[in-house]
Write a structure and sequence with these properties.
The structure holds two protein chains of two kinds.
Chain A: H1 3-11, H2 14-21, E1 30-31, H3 34-38, E2 55-57, H4 58-68, H5 70-73, H6 109-119, H7 130-143, E3 152-154, E4 169-170
Antiparallel strand pairs in A: 2-3
Chain B: H1 12-28, E1 56-57, E2 67-69, E3 87-88, E4 102-107, E5 113-116, H2 117-120, E6 126-133, H3 139-142, H4 150-154, E7 157-166, H5 167-174, E8 182-187, E9 194-198, H6 199-202, E10 207-212, E11 215-216, E12 226-228, E13 241-247, E14 262-263, E15 269-270, E16 279-284, E17 295-304, E18 310-316, E19 324-325, E20 327-329, E21 338-346, E22 351-359, H7 368-375, E23 388-391, E24 397-398
Classes of the chains: A mainly alpha, B alpha+beta.
Chain lengths: ~180, ~400
């Protein structure tokens, strides 16, 4: 199921739900301020909604990656031990040993930016600046052959990056298994 | 030692003889051990020191982003004690002062709002018993490395009574835009764990919970605030909840794209497979336990379904040749663990114990073979195949 189909499937029951959701407010709570909203930082949608203005280069990203990321993910994104690989694996998803990485599996480049910005580096999440996050994202995409070594990434170009596995996902088809309740005798 | 009257080996004649002797001993009082005063009161209770069941912590390089598993074989009824509820953390358990914790509700709403914990407790509250199950629970069984006991095979499922305010109440306070289709929920843990949920579910039965089993949430369960998303994979039940943003599209966070998606044999992956299908496991007798010789035993376990209410649990003791209905004991609630029980006489021969459940939508637990035939071995979240325990002649119960 495409994203559009997911949204369409969800749209019908909303009409009845709104009637309840629009009850008169109680007045509990206070109005959120711009500072309240800024404090939560960026959340980024695949169309780029929520991406803060900024830019970074893959070359800058390579230096940051070497300092903050390579210790766990390897100098070329190959992964170390329990720490997952970030690169490689393209063409393996239908095999008995699939390697799921940013390059082989992740459908959106915006997810790479969002996750690095909110959750990495593992020991110090949230410490990369907006520009540094663009830079590291550009380098991780370069490690996967998705961007050239001299790539520059910003809030306008990031959502336009086409990921190799963009069309690799389908919606929930369940029930997909018929349990046979017959007795086996 | 004086035999007890309910000892089945006791004849009426010997009871009468030894009974007379016991009465004589009581009168004299010489053989009774001296009694001592018990322990004093205490402000916060703990279990008996004789009770030792704990969560199972598999060794890992990153203990703060790992999981722990509930000792299902040690539990009675349907409620998991809060201290034994399974854990799954992305970046450790934050230490949050509830006096400074707030919930921001913004995005496609008429009135972006901030609620303190005191604010949230002013709304009409709701309590409901619901299970939470990690999407990856029982994945080892799917790939052919069956868990050796109920804790290791099925211990990423727990069930609590959760108390809080329905998310729809808060969304009503803020006023949802007609353009809204999803909500993005974020936790206040170090890595700001985030998931997108369809607005339809958010307006249905999602709870913004502050209570667990009669007291505040445990820290590892999201203290002071978490989402309860009944019947859906555990990862969506955002802990340490601090932010709900109403949006027009799924945000495609890492844990709804790179993880919690199931790779199928053709190389395509399923995403937004939120529901946890009907599943059951026998917890006694089960792997790691030993039967004390032939005779009568209770076969008991738990069944649950994210689709609704458990209607039927069948048990087989002969490897699936025949099935018998177990009794559902205690409360039978939607999207909650349900206890089943069946009296069984073990004749001393090898036996294969299995359970399969059916919910009120008619969905029945399949066999492992039926699952693997469709989904293969690469995508291992959401597996719900029938689990078998093998009773050996020496009374040992094992996973193989």
């Amino acid at each position: 199921m495409s994203r559009a189909a997911v949204i369409a499937a969800l749209a019908v029951p909303l009409l009845s739900a709104f009637a309840v959701a629009q009850a008169p407010p109680s007045g509990i709570g206070r109005a959120a301020t711009p500072a309240d909203i800024r404090a939560w930082g960026a959340s980024v949608a695949p169309d780029g909604t929520g991406l803060p203005a900024g830019r970074g280069t893959a070359a800058q990203g390579q230096r940051l990656y070497g300092a903050d990321c390579a210790g766990c993910h390897g100098d070329r994104g190959q992964g170390i031990g329990e720490y997952p690989p970030l690169a490689g694996g393209q063409g393996t998803l239908a095999s008995a040993q699939p390697v799921q990485t940013v390059g082989s599996y992740w459908p959106y480049a915006t997810t790479v930016w969002d996750y690095i910005h909110r959750a990495m580096p593992y020991e110090r999440p949230g410490t990369l600046t907006v520009d540094q996050t663009y830079a590291v994202t550009a380098y991780v995409l370069h490690l996967n052959g998705i961007l050239p070594a001299d790539a520059i990434l910003d809030d306008r170009t990031l959502p336009r990056v086409r990921m190799p596995n963009r069309d690799g996902f389908v919606g929930d088809p369940r029930p997909d298994i018929v349990a046979h309740r017959h007795q086996r005798r | 030692m004086t035999p007890l009257p309910d000892d089945p080996a006791l004849t009426r004649r010997s009871f009468l003889t030894s009974g007379a002797a016991s009465v004589g001993a009581l009168v004299v009082g010489a053989t009774e051990p001296p009694r001592r005063l018990g322990a004093p009161r205490r402000p916060y209770g703990e279990r008996s020191p004789h009770e030792t069941a704990t969560r199972y912590l598999r060794p890992t390089a990153t203990p703060d982003t790992a999981s722990s598993r509930t000792p299902l074989q040690a539990l009675y009824g349907i409620i998991t004690p809060s201290a034994l509820h399974f854990e799954r953390h992305q970046s450790g358990v934050p230490d949050i002062d509830p006096a400074h914790h707030e919930l921001l509700l913004d995005g496609l709403v008429d009135r972006p709002l901030v609620f303190t914990m005191e604010d949230l407790r002013r709304f009409p509250s709701k309590s409901q018993i619901r299970f939470i199950e990690c999407a990856g629970n029982t994945s080892e069984d799917q790939v052919g490395r069956p868990g050796i006991d109920p804790q290791r095979s099925h211990g990423l499922m727990s069930c609590s009574e959760w108390t809080g305010v329905p998310l729809r109440t808060l969304l009503g306070e803020a006023g949802v835009s007609p353009r809204a289709r999803w909500v993005l929920a974020e936790g206040a843990d170090a890595s700001r764990h985030a998931r997108s949920l369809p607005l339809e579910k958010a307006l249905d039965d999602v709870l913004v919970a502050y209570g667990q089993n009669g007291e505040a949430l445990r820290p590892e369960q999201g203290y002071p605030l978490r989402l309860i998303v009944p019947g859906w994979e555990g990862n969506t039940n955002i802990k340490w909840l601090g932010h709900v943003r109403v949006v027009d599209q799924p945000y495609m966070t890492r844990d709804e794209t790179a993880s919690y998606t199931d790779l199928m044999p053709d190389g395509k992956a399923r995403w937004f497979t939120f529901l946890m299908d009907p599943k059951s496991v026998i917890t006694r007798p089960a792997g790691g336990q030993t039967l004390q010789g032939p005779g009568c035993y209770e076969i008991t376990g738990l069944a649950w379904s994210g689709r609704g209410t458990i209607r039927r649990v069948e048990v087989s003791t002969d490897g699936g040749e025949s099935w018998e209905d177990a009794r559902l004991t205690g409360a039978v609630l939607p999207k909650a663990a349900t206890r089943f029980s069946l009296a069984w006489r073990w004749d001393g021969a090898t036996a294969t114990l299995q359970s399969r459940c059916t919910d009120d939508t008619g969905a029945t637990q399949p066999t492992r073979e039926e699952v693997v035939a469709v989904r293969g071995l690469n995508g291992t979240d959401h597996y719900n195949g029938i689990k078998a325990w093998y009773v050996h002649r020496d009374g040992s119960v094992r996973h193989e």
